Amino acid sequence: MRGALAALSGLITGFTALAVAELVSAAVRPESSPVTAVGGAAIDLAPPALKDFAVRNFGTHDKLVLQLGILALLAVFAMAVGVVALRHRLIGSAAVLVFGAIGAVAAVSRPDGALLDAMPSVGGALTAGAVLRVLVTRLTLRPSRAAPGTDGATAPRTAAARSGFDRRGFVIAATTAVTASAGAGVLGQRLNASGAAGAVASRAGVVLPAPSSPARPVPAGADLTVRGLSSFTTSNKDFYRVDTALVVPRIDATTWRLKIHGKGVSRPLTLSFDDLLRRELIERDITLTCVSNEVGGPYVGNARWIGVRLADLLREAGVRLPSRGGPADQIVARSVDGMTIGSPVETVMDGRDAMLAMGMNGEPLPFDHGFPVRMVVPGLYGYVSACKWLQDLELTTFADYDAYWVKRSWSQQAPVKTESRIDTPRPFASPQAGTVPVAGVAWAQQRGIARVEVRVDGGPWHTAKLGAQDTKDTWRQWLWHWPATSGNHTLEVRATDQDGYTQTGRRVGTVPNGATGWHSVVVTVT
């Protein structure tokens, strides 16, 4: 009985630590809470293979799975601490402080960490230690000796004495701790939410000006409108999200600033959001691709972006191309959450529509996708180009600095590879014999798609019909009408870009610079 209650005491202690930490984080910043800090540190330390496994198996829910995993481990740890504290109170208290120290070190050691970020973990641990001591004390009261009666007989022992601990006192202490902790946690969440209210209001107040260089209308026939085929334009809510932020930054656009500085910058710039809105804006349809996208994967999407040409800002700052004597060949973009992404100067300034984007599909950037400002560079995988929640651009060299993912075994530079995907029929589908539409998308940003071919069961390649091409920076839909016969069949697809390169069938994983291979699906025709 006491062992189970000791485990419960530990669980209550863990709950108290997290609740108090949530409240303290409201005075520091949401990212400093222990679960977020430890989760961020786990992402930082995870090898590329583990990160790929998480993205491949959990998709955009990988962060939720990580947080739930941390909470589950914490629960087990807390219950064990409670059981240990029943016999060794000092060891139990020390274990609670170790938990706090882990959270504090994780918070301070994050790329954007500061000394104050340790406060939530420290405050939570100290409070939890006190709660554990109170609860365990109620479980370790010794039975009182029986008092002799007036007639010399022994009086009956009290219920507390018979049970060996103060049940009533434990219930009161546990109930008080849970109630107070729940209140602290709810208050902390509300304070953190109110702190983001200014950011939400600033986004709601953004009116995107008409672009000086609007995107041309999507040509008729670009969207083949086949059932099961991805829409030509990906909606904001359906656009993939792959990043390391456990807490999506909420940034007030009215106080946001961007600095451009570093090697070869003769005129450093500090720009506000309104400064960017007053400049000449361009609007473009651009397909983005994540390097973690496996062959046939979902981490690719096409949207209409509006923003300022990045090359114009760099030239205004005095930046010269490396091929023309400029001392910097890398732009290191820094996010407010500490992420660093390195992009080649030569590529960004070669005339492509690289931009600092402020709008996505006709509205201000959603918070999940980088509000108020993010980078968009067509033709490069996101980990070397698409910095979200941008706040700093530093000109440097690849020899002098490795950005976040490069330190984790990914390539310094990574142009998008020519790829294609079958959207319909789905794997293990059971279409009826007859004419079956086989359709999907293909992409080769900065080159464009020239041809898509499909084959069945390793047979001859058949040329698919292509949707109308919008620009070389957007994906292209394709369709082939398959005269399907009964039985199990394997469909494969490959694309050829405008440079004449046909994608290889050799399967290679995503590390270090993107997957290759032909996407295939197995179906059973009935």
Describe this structure in words.
The chain has 526 residues and is an alpha+beta fold. It is built from twelve helices and 18 strands. The protein has helices spanning 2-28, 34-45, 48-58, 62-87, 89-109, 119-139, 159-163, 167-195, 197-204, 273-277, 310-316, 345-348, and strands spanning 257-262, 269-272, 282-289, 300-309, 330-335, 340-344, 355-360, 363-364, 374-376, 390-396, 419-424, 434-443, 449-456, 462-463, 465-466, 476-484, 487-497, 519-525. Strand 5 and strand 6 (340-344) form a beta hairpin. The termini are far apart. Mean pLDDT is 93; it is low at 143-155.
SS-based class: alpha+beta
Provide the low-confidence segments as ranges.
Answer: 143-155
H and E string: HHHHHHHHHEEHEEHEEHEEEEEEEEEEEE
Q: Strand tally, please?
A: 18
What is the strand arrangement across the widest sheet? 2-1-10-5-6
What multimeric state do the chains show? single chain
Strand content: 15-25%
Number of helices: 12
Query: What's the overall average pLDDT, rounded?
Result: 93
The helix fraction, in percent, is 25-40%
Radius of gyration: 29 Å
Termini gap: 61 Å
For the biggest sheet, the summary is: 5 strands, mixed
Shape: globular
Task: Provide tags for this entry.
alpha+beta; five-stranded antiparallel sheet; globular; five-stranded mixed sheet; 526 residues
Briefly characterize the structure:
The protein is of the alpha+beta class and 526 residues long. The chain contains twelve helices and 18 strands. Helices cover 33% and strands 21% of the residues.
